[in-house]
Amino acid sequence: MTYRSGRHFLQIPGPTNVPDRVLRAIDAPTMDHRGPEFGVLGKYVLEGLKPIFKTKNPVIIFPASGTGAWEAALVNTLSPGDKVLMVETGQFATLWQEMADRLGLTVEFVAGDWRSGVDPKLIEAKLKEDKGHTIKAVCAVHNETSTGVTSRIGLIRKAIDAAGHPALYLVDTISSLASIDYRHDEWGVDVTVSGSQKGLMLPPGLSFNAISDKAIAASKKAGLTKSYWDWAPMLAANEKGYFPYTPATNLLYGLKEAIDMLMEEGLDNVFARHDRHAEATRRAVRGWGLEILAKNPEEYSSALTAVLMPEGHNADALRKVILDKFDMSLGAGLGKVAGKVFRIGHLGDFNDLTLAGTLSGVEMGLKLAGVPIKASGVAEALAYLGEANTGAKSAAA
Ligand SMILES: *Cc1c(COP(=O)(O)O)cnc(C)c1O
């Protein structure tokens, strides 16, 4: 490979660009994970994650990708044959559902159009029908990374309550945590699944389960086979800041730094920044005359935008041009929308000028790939970003 000057633009919706502060924190000698210093770090990150999930309860850290934390959520709370209710919002819901099926659960997977989130009314109706309470868990993906569509987790909670149903509520926040407002306790979520490599600005390799008291109680009776993923030895060792097996020490240095950075910026500012970049991106897409995959404005994702290609144009061909010419990676269409959409990641360590560069690369790429565009979407996005900054606190203030 030959050297390409300047930073690569990693504008896929995860893994995201890792900030220098995090990279520098990781670049330190690995410490003894049974030694006295480790316990201090362990406690710091285990406590520091709680406000990010908005929970007072424990958050478990696995040395694993997000897929591992999906499995942990299921095997700790459910028993063979248990019925779980899931909705086909896109590729990630589909994969989690396949996993549940392989683990021996009975999945009711409600078909979806890959352009909408989970309909709270549908959940309420399904649970009301289930008079015998055979459904043991409702699983939802907060931010469906394959489509750029969110599900309204608080409203789904209300739907479960309205049905008076005792099902557990499991939520995947792998691509929303620390980018889009999320409230584990307030929304009565029993297991929140997350990962390190998206909004948390870390490299891949850590994943999380935030757990409710109800989930802990369920884990004492759950019958699915579990060993590595078992919460019990984790919770016991975590009391003193330690782990039952070797943790990903250097990634935890990075996690400490990322927690500090998020707290310095303030979570509300982090969310507002993601909202602003998402809105600017949508204005760019409309300016180009292209279609946003997400159907309902109240379900727009602030972490990424999936864009539909016009008839006769392939998204992967466009992505190749942009990678070759401008050294920028964009997200591919996954599963049912492969080749039909491309995804612009605007989450994690990101500012207005990173977005301006990203959108400029897309606009130049569209022209080079011969995709007809109506006008300059970049101009629309810049106008919005400029406006959003008038009167707002300057970065230096
Ligand atoms: C990235 C992602 C996953 C998969 O996580 P891995 O770390 O690749 O295992 C699952 N769900 C969602 C919503 C994601 O964005």
TrEMBL record:
Q: Which CDD domains match?
A: AGAT_like
Cofactor field: pyridoxal 5'-phosphate
Q: Which Gene3D superfamilies match?
A: Aspartate Aminotransferase, domain 1, Type I PLP-dependent aspartate aminotransferase-like (Major domain)
One Pfam family cited in the UniProt record for this chain = Aminotran_5
- Keyword Transferase part of the UniProt annotation: yes
Q: Name one GO molecular function term.
A: L-serine-pyruvate transaminase activity
Domain Aminotransferase class V: from-to ranges: 31-319
- Where N6-(pyridoxal phosphate)lysine occurs, the residues are K198
- In which residues is substrate bound? R343
Q: Which UniProt keywords apply?
A: Aminotransferase, Pyridoxal phosphate, Transferase
Q: Return the InterPro entries for the record.
A: Aminotrans_V_dom, PyrdxlP-dep_Trfase, PyrdxlP-dep_Trfase_major, PyrdxlP-dep_Trfase_small, SP_NH2Trfase/AEP_transaminase
Entry's Gene Ontology BP terms: glycine biosynthetic process, by transamination of glyoxylate
Top-rank taxon, per record: Bacteria
The family line of this record is: Belongs to the class-V pyridoxal-phosphate-dependent aminotransferase family.
Protein name (Swiss-Prot/TrEMBL)? Serine-glyoxylate aminotransferase-related protein
